[in-house]
Design brief:
The protein is of the alpha/beta class. The chain has one domain (43-57, 102-152, 178-410): TIM Barrel, CATH 3.20.20. Helix content is 41%, strand content 13%. The strands form five sheets. Strands 1-14-13-12-11-10 form a six-stranded parallel sheet, sandwiched between helices. A two-stranded parallel sheet has the order 2-7. The protein is globular, with a radius of gyration of 22 Å.
């Protein structure tokens, strides 16, 4: 990479701090607890924080970048964020003496580009409003969706790993990593068409929607097929969509390190636009298409922002499902009763508590206690996953206090 001695010095100093964190006993303890949770025999509820508004987080220049080279700054930023999270809001994060490198995979082209108007309230914030333009109005338009043709450049990946190892000087080890794609087909469709158009067509043009979903599912399935045949996926995973993926159940027998198969991996699926549709429609237009693909994976984490407490009859039948997202809009008592001991209740507490004019830690505690109480009463393995944090009103201490409250409650 050819970084200057100054940039290399900055990175190595930060790498030493990360290595020291990775050597702490709490890392092994957290891994053990995540494995117990994912095996449905929890030691205690788990806590994770992700999707952080980093532009609001800097205090005492802890996140201020010092490197000059663009690539060096990217590495520096990652290391500083690890150190910052461990210092201020560690929750149950796991830090290892490694630095992940994505494998060089080319050809991610579904033939579509997003056309949208954006509404921006804070120019520093990457979270913006979207109005998507409909590009798939007719059956002829469906031909625009193409099956990607992927390629895996092993030499480029190996060079990146070797270059990073040289930069780290043995302090951290660069490791290759790439998992399966997130199976959020409906998120992609919404970005190609717009939410309103999708919902109207579900009622008025169901056959058109079936043809659209069939074509999109075929494209996603082809991507998974190619990643598997190229030997491009690695494993085992540590995280899956903001939550710990540590488990003793994966990889499956016959696993070859560095060449994972779908059955060695977790995968995440969702259909967020289906928040307001019936269970029958959710089954017909999402799960009937996606269940054959979910069935190929070792474990499945299903859901995101869509409330699933009224859809457990269909969700529990997803092949290999283990974690089920319980968004801020579920009835936690009903959800806990219907999940029971059979799945992980992956609770997504509302990030809105962090965005109010006046910070109210008492309301946070009340909200978290309600979830923990309902899950305790029904024997649910439960994790608290705070994500989608668009703002803390430039008061990072709010997030630190949220983490402290959550950690106190799960260890009571």
């Amino acid at each position: 990479m050819g970084f200057s001695s100054s940039d290399t010095g900055v990175i190595r100093d930060l790498a030493k701090q990360v290595a020291e964190i990775a050597a702490q006993p709490r890392q092994k303890e957290a891994v053990r607890a995540w494995k117990a949770m994912n095996g449905l025999k929890p030691i205690r509820p788990m806590v994770a924080i992700d999707q952080i508004p980093w532009h609001e987080m800097n205090v005492n220049d802890e996140l201020t970048l010092r490197c000059e080279d663009k690539s060096a700054r990217g590495i520096e930023e990652t290391l500083r964020r690890i150190i910052y999270r461990h210092k201020h809001m560690p929750a149950d994060m796991v830090v290892g003496p490694v630095f992940g490198v994505g494998r060089s995979i080319g050809g991610w082209d579904f033939g579509m580009r997003t056309h949208e108007d954006k509404a921006v309230s804070d120019p520093q914030n990457s979270v913006v409003g979207h109005f998507y333009h409909d590009q798939l109005q007719t059956e002829a338009d469906l031909e625009k969706i193409r099956i990607p043709v992927l390629s895996y450049d092993k030499a480029a990946t190996a060079k990146c790993v070797a270059d990073l190892d040289e930069v780290f000087g043995g302090i951290l080890k660069a490791v290759e990593g790439i998992g399966p794609p997130m199976l959020n087909v409906w998120d992609a469709i919404v970005m190609w068409r717009g939410a309103e158009n999708v919902l109207v067509d579900l009622g008025e043009r169901p056959e058109f929607v079936h043809k659209l979903m069939a074509r999109a599912t075929a494209a996603y399935t082809a991507v998974v097929d190619q990643l598997e045949s190229l030997g491009a996926m690695t494993g085992p995973q540590e995280w899956i969509h903001c939550t710990g993926a540590f488990t003793d159940e994966l990889p499956a027998a016959g696993f070859v390190p560095g060449r994972a198969r779908t059955k060695d991996m977790w995968v995440c699926g969702m259909a967020q636009i289906f928040s307001s549709v019936s269970p029958a429609m959710h089954q017909e237009f999402e799960l009937d298409y996606m269940n054959p693909l979910y069935a190929r994976f070792g474990l499945v984490y299903y859901g995101c922002c869509e409330p699933l407490d009224r859809k457990m009859d269909i969700v529990r039948k997803i092949p290999n499902v283990r974690k089920i997202s319980m968004s801020p809009w579920v009835d936690v008592e009903r959800a806990a009763e219907r999940i029971g001991r059979g799945f992980v209740f992956s609770r997504k507490p509302s990030p809105a508590f962090l965005a109010t004019d006046d910070w109210n830690p008492g309301a946070v505690e009340e909200d978290l206690r309600a979830t923990l109480k309902a899950c305790r009463a029904n024997g649910c393995p439960v994790e608290l996953i705070l994500k989608d944090i668009s703002t803390v009103r430039y008061q990072p201490q709010r997030l630190w206090e949220w983490a402290a409250i959550a950690q106190r409650l799960v260890t009571e």
